[in-house]
Amino acid sequence: MKILKAAMDTFAKQGLEKGTIATIAREAGIGKGTIYQYFQSKEEIFEQIILVVFDEMFQAWMQLIQDDWDPVKKLKLIIDYTIDTTLDMAQSGNKEQFSMVMEIMLYAYRNNTKISLDKVLQHIYAIFEPIIEQGILKGLFKPVDVKYFSFILFSFLDGFGLHMFFQYRHYNNDELKRTMKSIILKGILL
Amino acid sequence: MKILKAAMDTFAKQGLEKGTIATIAREAGIGKGTIYQYFQSKEEIFEQIILVVFDEMFQAWMQLIQDDWDPVKKLKLIIDYTIDTTLDMAQSGNKEQFSMVMEIMLYAYRNNTKISLDKVLQHIYAIFEPIIEQGILKGLFKPVDVKYFSFILFSFLDGFGLHMFFQYRHYNNDELKRTMKSIILKGILL
Amino acid sequence: MKILKAAMDTFAKQGLEKGTIATIAREAGIGKGTIYQYFQSKEEIFEQIILVVFDEMFQAWMQLIQDDWDPVKKLKLIIDYTIDTTLDMAQSGNKEQFSMVMEIMLYAYRNNTKISLDKVLQHIYAIFEPIIEQGILKGLFKPVDVKYFSFILFSFLDGFGLHMFFQYRHYNNDELKRTMKSIILKGILL
Amino acid sequence: MKILKAAMDTFAKQGLEKGTIATIAREAGIGKGTIYQYFQSKEEIFEQIILVVFDEMFQAWMQLIQDDWDPVKKLKLIIDYTIDTTLDMAQSGNKEQFSMVMEIMLYAYRNNTKISLDKVLQHIYAIFEPIIEQGILKGLFKPVDVKYFSFILFSFLDGFGLHMFFQYRHYNNDELKRTMKSIILKGILL
DNA sequence: AATGAATGAGCTTTCATTCAT
DNA sequence: GATGAATGAAAGCTCATTCAT
Prior knowledge:
The structure is a homotetramer of 190-residue chains.
Chain A: H1 2-14, H2 21-28, H3 32-38, H4 42-65, H5 71-91, H6 97-110, H7 117-137, H8 146-167, H9 173-188
Chain A binds a DNA duplex (21 and 21 nucleotides) through residues 17, 20-22, 25, 30-34, 36-37, 41-42.
């Protein structure tokens, strides 16, 4: 939706507080009042952004994962994909979108938003669970606790992404990918 | 320093934007004007907080690491320590300090602050380098790229800490520790 | 008319400023735009409400007064009626209609509305004039100035009604009626 | 106080809603923010105005009433005073102050303000009670219910004042005074 | 050095009104 | 005729910062 797009651009560029409704309206080419026909408040825009972003993330990962490849290949794919998209974002105009999402998550963490941060995250963690399960069943992975490993895996990927943003100038991507994969795969492979 | 302490408490409790200079002054038991004798602006307070927090973190880790134990034990220690302190923070009154630090980092990332986020982070990554080096030299660790592994390690720990905050109710700590250690150690051990 | 009814309900419940055109439209079960087909502006709705309210009031009093009873009985009737309807309003759902009318009168007093507050009020005062005249002619009332007495009488009744609203919990109605009648009748009777 | 004075002028001139904080600040020769150092909200200004206005009214009436004159003379005085000050206000620059007070009372009636409209009014009614009591004791007044008569008396005076404002062009003041006094005194005198 | 009263830019939000459909 | 999406002026309120004391 046009407004949400403009809001994301604005918040990404200027941050949650400095990005004003007026700017979003101008960016969307509409009047300020119109925004309030579609969103009850600035906070609701935050919530919708989180939902959209996580839903897109969810969809993207589900597509990576639903195919017939074996779990090891999938895990490699996930890591590659994370790094690739992180770097794409870092190098494209969407550069600040990552920090915007983090800002909204911190906002949701602090304030009682309608959107449950817990739920949204659990939803994401759950994506990885079938892969891990499958890997264990196939005798490829160690018999780790599926929930815990998924949680840790996503937290690693997220932390890695975050620091990539903070530091993205300094590293060679291929080398990073190789090291990441080496660590995580060793961690899970029998 | 009294002001910085009050500022950290205030920002942790209320967030960077909602935490006002007035509140900090009241919390510190001084006048609003006095704060401006020690800091040029609210932004400078952010910067000083980052410096202090990362310096304390630096000191704490340096102490963990400077002893004579072997690298494997140190790595285990680091992971335990990270999880323990994260949980301590999550369960103590300092609960929100973690998100405040993240908020300031995002702030520093977005705005051109005097404090270089890069430098501060590089400083932290560097803590881990000697351990890795030592481990490799001793033939205990795989011959990974020291810089890259350190970067990844801290980004993992940070992401893990962040998600612990978002989700800290849901997990059993001992199980988490065991899984974390298993992953990271397998990743690095020969 | 449906719109006017909805407007009165809305303004009574929410006040002149907080009662919005949107609410009136919803209450009337029509679109916002439709209201502007029947009224030029919110102000015109105020004006029409005043007209309707005062016309109803006028009709009600005219009916009380047009019968053949003697002036003394009519005067008693008027006082009873005023108190009864005031209390009815105070105790029914229309509780706030009285203050709405007062609000509109103040509005009309302040702003140059098309509706002349003067005229509307003069119209009401004039209701009482025939009774007073009749009473004087019949030798029952003192030879007061008819216009002045009517003006004062209605201002008394209005002030009384207003304060009944502000204070309606605190008094016994029968006692109030008796005292009111005693004062006003003594004031006019020879 | 300077702000309260400016607020009263502004609200009197422009009404409660159209009178803005910006205007009050300009009128008072101060910045907008300064107003919020002394008042928590626009509503609190309303409340303080009511308190001040009723307190002044209270003081003025107390002075009229505390002297040694007999109750009949006092009652006459009260009526004269009410009409005189009403007319003074109507003809001076304070012309709209009366309707402002009424607006605030309606506001207080509708919204749950900190100021209790009931209490403030009861306080005023109570002013008249000693006179009535004294008059009854001295055998000058009928043995009316003191509370009720006081309530009615003030409601009459208030209603009369209100209508004077709505209609003040049309009447001869001396004639009004005479008629008012005649009615009210007959109503109470034995 | 310490203060806090004063400030005004800047924010979110509301809502009467318009007008293309 | 009926509609409601779009609008933007306008409002109350906040708060980092200044500066006279």
